[in-house]
Amino acid sequence: MRRSRFFLCLCVAVLAPTFVSSAEFNPVQAQPGVQHEAAVQRIIVKMRALESGSHVGSAAVTAPLARRAQLVLKESHRIAPRLHAIKIGPAIGGESVAAILARLRTDAAVEYAEVDQRRYPQAVADDPLFPAQWYLQSASATPSAVNAESAWDVTTGSTGVVIADIDTGVRFDHPDLLRAGAGDGGRLLPGYDFVSDVNSANDGDGRDADPSDPGDWVSTADTTMPEFQD
Question: What domains lie within the chain, and their CATH numbers?
């Protein structure tokens, strides 16, 4: 547990500067500014009944709705059958958008009404190993997880940041690390084995420049025990 806590603190300390880096391009972090349009509101409305024909214009469907809701219809476009995007004039007396939506939703002809607004893509994991990495996932699912998913919308890392990992060693066959060094397109810098006690070191020697993890402390004798069968 002591080693785990040290490793976590070290990673947080090293990664923290990357969260405020201005050099990294991130489409979520650099989303365009909000366009305030006090004079015109955009609303997406879905009608319950299908229009009588494809020749029927969008305004022919939404204009009666606007009149019933006491709204000024500025523009109307059909997105799909029964689905329309409308622009309405400024609300009378500073009426809120929530109040306008509530009035539209009470109309018997309306299935739903929502504000038409910008949405931005959020980072999602495409790593096939991610489902098994519970410690990176949402803390709501696993209380001890670090919720790395929310951090990906801030930064996905930088090649200029070095992370020192104090652990039992490196598995060079792990696909997230790649055996090649940083100079050869890999992700690993030279490491070091600081275990000085030959009897404790699982590689059979003391300190050396080989940072590889030789295994999980399972010997040939261990494999004969019931706990290690299969």
Answer: 41-115 (3.30.70.260), 155-230 (no CATH)
